């Protein structure tokens, strides 16, 4: 019985981790598409803010895996 529960939790983790990671990578690629200056106008400061937000969130994910008690939900905004 116990082995079945552990396996189910493991399988659920793998399934969700793969799906969510694929979704996050696709979203990051879409952000990269914004670099096309013939379609978009942006400042270096805006680009830095986007990169900083992504890097901060990756650091937060690392911290959550290191200490599963941490959590945060924030939306990204170019203008505050």
Walk me through this protein's architecture.
With 80 residues, the protein is mostly helical. It has 2 helices and no strands. It has helices at residues 2-33, 44-66. The protein starts with a helix and ends in a 14-residue tail after the last helix. The mean pLDDT is 90.
Distance from first to last alpha carbon: 51 Å
The number of distinct β-strands equals 0
What is the overall pLDDT average?
90
Helix/strand structural class: mainly alpha
Tell me about the largest β-sheet.
none
Number of helices: 2
Please describe the topology of this protein.
Blueprint (H helix, E strand, L loop, with lengths): L1 H32 L10 H23 L14
Features:
80 residues; mainly alpha; 2 helices
Short structural summary:
With 80 residues, this protein is mainly α. The protein has 2 domains: 1-41; 43-80, no CATH class. It has helices spanning 2-33, 44-66.
């Amino acid at each position: 019985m116990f082995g079945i529960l552990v396996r189910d939790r493991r399988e659920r983790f793998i399934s969700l981790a793969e799906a969510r990671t694929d979704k996050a990578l696709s979203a990051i690629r879409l952000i990269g598409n914004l670099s096309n200056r013939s379609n978009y106008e942006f400042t270096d400061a805006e680009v830095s803010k986007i990169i900083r937000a992504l890097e901060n969130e990756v650091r937060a994910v690392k911290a959550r895996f290191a200490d599963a008690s941490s959590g945060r939900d924030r939306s990204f905004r170019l203008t505050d």
